[in-house]
Amino acid sequence: MLQFQKFTLDNGLRVIYHEDRSTPLVCMNILYDVGARDEDSNRTGFAHLFEHLMFGGSVNIPNYDEPLQRVGGENNAFTSNDITNYYLTVPTANLETAFWLESDRMLSLAFSEKSFEVQRNVVIEEFKQRYLNQPYGDIWLLLRPMVYKAHPYLWDTIGKDISHIAEAKMEDVKAFFKKFYCPNNAIMVLAGNTSLDEVKRLAEKWFAPIPKGPDNKRNLPVEPEQKEFRSLTVEREVPFNAIYQTYRMCSRKDKEFYVVDLLSDILSDGNSSRLYNELVKNKKMFSELSAYADDSMDKGMFVISGKVLDGFTLEQAEKAIAEELDKLKTEKVQEKELQKVQNKIEATLEFSEMNIMNKALNFAIAELLGDADQVNKEAEKYLAVTTDQMQQQAKQIFRKENCSTLYYLAKN
Amino acid sequence: MEVIDRKHSPKINEIKQAEIIRASEFRLKNNIPVYHINAGTQDLVKIELLFPAGMWQQPSPLVGSAASAMLQEGTSKRSSKEIAETVDYYGAFLETNITHDYASVAIYSMNKHLPSVLPVVKEIINDSVFSQSEWDVYLWNKKQAFIVNEKKVSVVSRKKFAELLFGNEHPYGHNVSEKDFDELKRQDAFDFYKKSYTAKDTIIVASGNVTDATLKFIEKYFGSTPASPFLSTSDSKKWGNGEGEKKGGTHLVEKKDALQSAIRIGKILFTKEHPDYPAMLVLNTIFGGYFGSRLMANIREDKGYTYGIGSGMVSLSHAGYFTISTEVGADVTKDAVKEIYFELNKIQTEKVSDSELALVRNYMLGTFLRSIDGPFALADRFKGIHFNNLGYDYYERYVETIRSISSGKLMELANKYWKKEDMIELVVGKK
Questions:
Q1: CB B307 to CB A93 under 8 A?
Q2: Which residue, of A9, A18, A101, B290, has the greatest Cβ tally within 10 A?
Q3: pLDDT tens, B335-375?
Q4: Predicted TM-score of the model (pTM)
Q5: CATH topology of domain B249-429
Q6: In what order do the strands lie in the sheet with A84-91?
């Protein structure tokens, strides 16, 4: 059971404090409720580019990293389709420096032309390094537009195309900041060795003067139900054929999420899982095969991906996966098998609580989902899942007309 | 509301070092030492057995990693699936790994489940069978993964660079090829396993909520296996620093379609045992060891040539080296190399400013605090000295060096150890 206190500043900034006296550090995690799904379809990759610009100096402080490092701190950030998250750890004695730095960049950025220019290049290199200059690196650029036709999940966080980054304008950046980087659109979590009084004092001092921003009512297009099987075949300079299947599923916010997450564990969590034993070990059809449930805030994807061994066609591979999915639809999972994945997830949650950064992020996401106290209820939700629910979800999700498949062929 | 100064940093307070919690030692009946660290807030423990079965000790390429992987693939009593099911059922995590210098079998578990999971750990260490069918699946899939990885410039450059540093015959330098997979024999891996996973040089490191009961379980499951004699197959006198490139020089592995080139520059240096090692860590941090480093500031934050660039001092048990590595746009490969040498020359000819040095001192002190936070981190710090025959005073010297080293000394070290003409330079991609 993780204790916490929560308060909200007049400008709408939500603050959560979790005390952990076993560490000499404090973690500050600031989650902004903005991700790639909030981008204009003609200016994609922006939320992520913006994350880079957040390190290019703020209105009163020319450089973000340097003063933080000077007090023994370290930081990083990530962008997803749903959120942009910034986190740092600092020795307790220098906690105030973290408040100074983070509040200034929430107040306003420096918007330096030089930083903008350079970060555009850095992101273009990131695009090449992670998506283009890697075998199988472009799969999300191919899969997302096949799965989504209306919802902005149809592009990846890096963007649809390098040109969107290359053509980004300073005015776009400023508008993006005004709209999304305001206290009422953020959740701040402090976790570590300090006190509630100190957190309150510093939050009031540094963050309370920041003006409230506009209310962002998210009104994203709803993805219509998929009614037909979709597929795409590409050829690339890769050594082996691969197959990627996605099935539309519920969102992280739905109660069914816990059921679907455990289904993915039954299929592919480790050496005792079904896909590994049946298709990698027994049938020797795949060199790698995995399944996972997307934890996106809007309706997401259940993804199965595998590299097919020579001697098998993609049709055979597809049929073998379908047989495993059919088992989940026609036969209930054994109680002992369910118990196994439940025990494992309970332990995973316990291990994640050894680290202040994990705890801070978990609180921030729980608060975004509606209630920070949900971090203490995750385990019971997984433990409440029944074999009936699993069978019902398997029937609901693993239907051919709910599936999009990418056939990724090796050029000879 | 109080008036606040947003232009200037709040007062910078001294970073007090937390006391590093040291491992205590006791010996099992068979004389295997157990180093244990009781720390943390959760009822969890990590019990790790470390064997002289790493790359250094293996008789031929891939034997060590194959033996390590096969530990999870079945014993005379349990199939691979049964091993995994038991571990999963109790919410535990079993890892088998090899490094350059040792192999490890680690179990993460709640204390209350140790009686259920430790028998499995004991069984895989003493009674794995390496069945032919499991072996075939392992080898085939491993080879496939290898072939995919060979398409990555970052992987090719890391392997080629080790070969250039140490030589292809050296245990640290062998550049694995497809041929090594074809020549790998099940029997060799099995023999190596039998010989080295019961050896007298084995140690156990336990961390987390380690109670008397935890130690009793360790004694019960690992204290009765007799320790067999084992001499490591690689002789450090024979190998020395390897038979790699003795002089600096440039090397190119051309990849015609590459969008990015991987660059590696560096040279053989020394291990943690060398008296200048802590000071070299300070120098390296300034140069390329953190986000605000000279290399990052110039090549990423000023020029935008790369998503990331860094340098490191690597200390293995028997040798150490210095390396700079990055992936840059193929069209700016030459420019990036030029800028790396510009920074190298600068750190050799201009003293580091007081301000930059003060920043790096504090950054490193903070990083050290992070590196001793939590029981598993403390176990890693123990391993970090144990495998270089050092005691905890190494960390005292390290902190003392961070606090006291002068800019003059740093410049002297940069000139002494980072001579440009000694550097091996490798580009994988386009030049």
A1: no
A2: A101
A3: 999 999 999 999 999 999 999 999 999 999 999 999 999 99
A4: 0.92
A5: Cytochrome Bc1 Complex; Chain A, domain 1 (3.30.830)
A6: A5-8, A14-19, A186-192, A25-32, A84-91, A74-79
